[in-house]
Design goal:
- By secondary structure, the protein is of the alpha/beta class.
- It is 43% helix and 22% strand.
- The chain folds into 2 domains: 117 residues, Rossmann fold (3-Layer(aba) Sandwich); 95 residues, Arc Repressor Mutant, subunit A.
- The protein has a 5-stranded parallel sheet with strand order 2-1-3-4-5, with helices on both faces. A 4-stranded antiparallel sheet has the order 6-7-8-9, covered by helices on one side.
Length: 218
């Protein structure tokens, strides 16, 4: 089930969107400022962001620059065409002008997530390439054989290269992908992935963040 982050400081608008998205079967996470949105992005797997521009603290424009590998739909009362073009060129997937129709918002979200699913069949990060459909992993064009669990762990990290995942978060998502309870062996799986990557690359690509969990190296 996709998780949509609503970044909107207007409580009434946020509530309206949350109710409509819940009816469509989406999970919803809320943030009322740019700073809170960054915290949510670091703690949860987010599939799409609905982003207002006029936010307290970090503005929507500034926040957009900090979001990578996640679809972002701008929702703003700013209707200036140059502003729209600038945001679309700087990473936004779509732009909806307020006031909006809920049916249009839902349709735009479905299109963005459909595109997201297609693009994420092939994941790339620096020297790493993963084909989810064929269950193949390549490092500098050298195929690396991963177990089902190792593949699932690396898939989670590659889909969210800037996100730190706690051990509990990885274990929860691994179970959804593999039905494998790996709590006692997660560190061993991470070590095996690093060793296999390092056969063909100069870095292991997986950082252990003390007290937090794991993420891909920048």
């Amino acid at each position: 089930m996709e998780n949509i982050l609503i970044v909107e400081d207007d409580i009434d608008i946020g509530n309206l969107l949350e109710e409509a998205l819940n009816k469509e079967g989406y999970l919803v996470t809320r943030a009322y400022s740019g700073t809170e949105a960054l915290l949510q992005l670091s703690n949860k797997k987010i599939d799409l962001v609905l982003l207002d521009l006029m936010l307290p603290g970090i503005t929507g424009e500034e926040l957009l620059k900090k979001i990578n590998s996640i679809k972002v739909i701008i929702m703003s009362a700013k209707a200036d065409i140059d502003n729209k073009v600038s945001l679309l060129l700087n990473g936004a997937s779509d732009y909806i002008t307020k006031p909006f129709y809920l049916k249009e918002v839902i349709a735009r979200i479905k299109v963005a997530l459909r595109s997201n699913d297609f693009n994420q069949k092939l994941l790339t990060y620096k020297e790493l390439k993963m084909n989810i459909d064929t269950h193949q992993m390549f490092v500098n064009d050298n195929e690396v054989k991963l177990t089902k669990t190792e593949f699932a762990i690396l898939q989670i990290l590659l889909k969210n290269p800037n996100q730190v995942f706690s051990k509990a978060g990885i274990i929860e998502q691994i179970y959804d992908l593999t039905n494998d309870g790996i709590e006692s062996s997660l560190n061993a799986h991470i070590s095996n992935i690093r060793s296999k990557i390092e056969r063909y690359a100069k870095e292991s690509y997986i950082d252990a963040i003390w007290g937090l969990g794991y993420k891909l190296q920048k």
